[in-house]
């Protein structure tokens, strides 16, 4: 992965402002090593899928429905209250 990012930089890309990743091990660190000013956002779909791994099958539907209350919240305060 680092070779791809360094190639992108060598071709003239000066920086990446925001990256969205699935939180693959080491990917965020690799991006930071090449593009130091980059901010990383973990994809909400992947966050939900990762969280669902720890939920019993019969509760997954209710769990994902409840999660929508805070990840669709209009601001941080509303998200905290929904959580």
Characterise this structure.
The structure is a single chain. The chain has 83 residues and is mostly helical. The protein has one domain. The protein is 54% helix and 10% strand. The chain contains five helices and two strands. β1 (18-21), α2 (27-34) and β2 (39-42) form a beta-alpha-beta unit. It is elongated, with a radius of gyration of 17 Å. The model has no long low-confidence stretch (mean pLDDT 88).
Task: Please bin the fraction of helical residues.
Answer: 40-55%
Number of helices in the DSSP assignment:
5
Biggest sheet details: 2 strands, parallel
Which spans of ≥5 residues are poorly predicted at pLDDT below 50? none
Taking the alpha carbons of the first and last residues, their distance comes to 36 Å
Class based on secondary structure composition and strand pairing: mainly alpha
N-to-C order of helices and strands: HEHEHHH
- The strand order across the widest sheet is 1-2
Instruction: Give the total of beta strands.
Output: 2
Our estimate of the beta-strand percent is 5-15%
Structure characteristics:
mainly alpha; 2 strands; 83 residues; 5 helices; elongated
């Amino acid at each position: 992965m680092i070779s791809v990012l360094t190639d992108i930089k060598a071709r003239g890309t000066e920086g990446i402002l925001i990256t969205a990743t699935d939180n693959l091990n080491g990917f965020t660190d690799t991006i930071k090593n090449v593009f130091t000013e980059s901010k990383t956002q973990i994809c909400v779909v992947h966050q939900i899928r990762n969280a669902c791994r720890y939920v019993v099958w019969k509760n997954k539907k209710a769990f994902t429905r409840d999660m929508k209350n805070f990840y669709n919240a209009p601001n941080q305060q509303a998200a905290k209250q929904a959580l």
